[in-house]
Specification:
The protein is of the alpha/beta class and about 375 residues long. The chain has 14 helices and 13 strands. Helix 1 runs parallel beside helix 12, helix 6 packs across helix 7 and helix 8 packs across helix 11. The chain binds 6-O-phosphono-beta-D-fructofuranose.
Length: about 375
Amino acid sequence: MTKRIGVLTAGGDCPGLNAAIRGVGKTAQGTYDMRVLGFRDGFRGLVENRVVDLDRAKLSGILTIGGTILGTSRDKPHKMRVDGRNVDMTDVIVRNYAANHLDALVCLGGGGTQKNALVLQEHGLNVITLPKTIDNDVGLTDVSFGFDTALGIATDAIDRLHSTAHSHHRIIVVEIMGHRSGWLALGAGMAGGADVILLPEIPYDIQAVAKAVTDRVRYGLNFSIVAVAEGAMSMQDAARVQDYQQRIALAQERGDRKARKKAKAELKAFEASGADQHTLRLTRQLEALTGLESRPTILGHLQRGGTPSAADRLLATRLGSVCADLIDAGHYGVMVAARGDSAEPVPLEQVAGNKKLVPPDHPWVKSAKNVGICLGVGV
Ligand code: F6P
């Protein structure tokens, strides 16, 4: 019997999503004669049953297009904003899955999507996921699609910023996306020849950063590029966050829900208050400490836009194609992970909540140090 599969894209958009939809859809239709349906705007489209037939014509001409033809959202099945309140819509999703006679649901997304997909799998749906994110922080896959394109964009931006830094003898602080993980800042910083790279995984000492800049001035290099990940933190801020996290863990241990909620709210407020100002504050601090004129540049969503790179198109196509193979074999409850030149299924239970952070002893970190890049520590 012809299998019917649903596809959705959830979380932030990124280059390569359309290539992945196409990879799943073309293999499912062409090789296995399956019927492919798309749901609009992530899990919300599945709740509201906004469905589109992904026929051959819809899958054609999308390989090189950025974003997602299906639309996306950050809505979670178990906590969806409906009429101004958070409602658990999982049962509605289960009903719509059945109403559309689906044999499988393919969810393309990052860390949050992997967790949401697991919840649906536990509710009896046949779910299979693909890893996408410019942050490259989905666990148990070598790489996620979207990362390579963003790496190219951020590197190109650093290349261009060098002209102004050099000509005006300035510090340029360039903020690169990545709230919890610094793969993009580290990769683009190294490829773009940044002098300082600050990551969420390695809390920095502002004095060490200032010293790296003034040391360069002593060698006649009176400009510097500081690549800072969105979630990078000073040692002081990191200590405060650790403090909140300890309070949350302690309250959890004691079963004190009120104290846990309070500490979580305080942590959220602390993170929100500092986050959007962090790069500006860092820029001002460096200007004051070094005497060099300093300017911030926030790359923001530019990093998620435009045509996917060849590497991302290739990755998304091969993962999408293997995804259809697995559906044909009835292999569900897994993420299709990139493993070298091939791909392999990894159980969703292992992927959900498994964030891939930059290990402080990672070979990229070692090489960065070896070529004299300051990572914000060691005055
Ligand atoms: O997860 C990808 C990502 O681009 C992060 O790097 C960034 O912190 C976040 O999404 C931004 O999300 P939004 O587009 O919702 O502002």
